[in-house]
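Structure first, sequence second, as always.
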């Protein structure tokens, strides 16, 4: 599941080619959308809320029969098979205590931010749409009964600059509000 504005077509195309699994794009701006066989497109052009976008994609994937959903940004570079390995890692008991299922997994340390690439069990855990831009991934990590790191998943976050001008100001404002909400909800100081 990939939320996208469609402004990174080469990176998005590469990501979809290497996904190795059915893809759901959550198109977040009005206009033309991605046209490609095997890619479901969900339109969510309401106010900025990446956690709602994640849930829109998760809901679409679940309606199509998915029991694990990989959420990845459109600026992620994933090696062939990496996202499949991440999805499989959610149920891989060899990565943690066999009797403890994981509801959330990441290709990197569980204490890192996971919002740009992670897998979750949608029957056990969903993003909180009260967050609109940041901190919802940290909230997921804290609410997940069990998390797992999946080694050998080769992904990188391209991080193309995009948050400038009016959009950048809006994202900074949303981030400040999310930070206050996160600190109050999880009693985190600083």
């Amino acid at each position: 599941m990939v939320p996208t504005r469609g402004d990174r077509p080469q990176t998005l195309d590469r990501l979809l080619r290497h996904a190795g699994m059915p893809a759901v794009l959550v198109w977040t701006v009005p206009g033309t959308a991605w046209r490609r066989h095997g890619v479901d497109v969900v339109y969510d052009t309401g106010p900025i809320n990446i956690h709602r976008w994640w849930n829109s994609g998760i809901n679409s994937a679940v309606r199509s029969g998915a029991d694990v959903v990989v959420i990845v940004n459109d600026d992620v570079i994933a090696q062939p098979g990496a996202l499949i390995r991440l999805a499989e890692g959610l149920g891989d008991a060899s990565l943690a205590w066999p009797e403890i299922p994981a509801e959330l997994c990441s290709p990197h340390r569980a204490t890192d931010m996971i919002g740009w690439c992670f897998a979750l069990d949608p029957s056990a855990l969903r993003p909180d749409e009260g967050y609109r831009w940041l901190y919802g991934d940290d909230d997921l990590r804290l609410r997940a009964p069990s998390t797992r790191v999946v080694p050998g998943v080769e992904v990188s976050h391209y991080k193309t600059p995009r948050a400038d001008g009016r959009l950048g100001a809006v994202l900074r404002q949303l981030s400040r509000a999310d930070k206050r909400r996160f600190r109050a909800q999880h009693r985190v100081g600083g």
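Margin note: Strands lie at 2-4, 23-27, 39-43, 69-72, 76-78, 104-106, 117-120, 147-149, 155-157.
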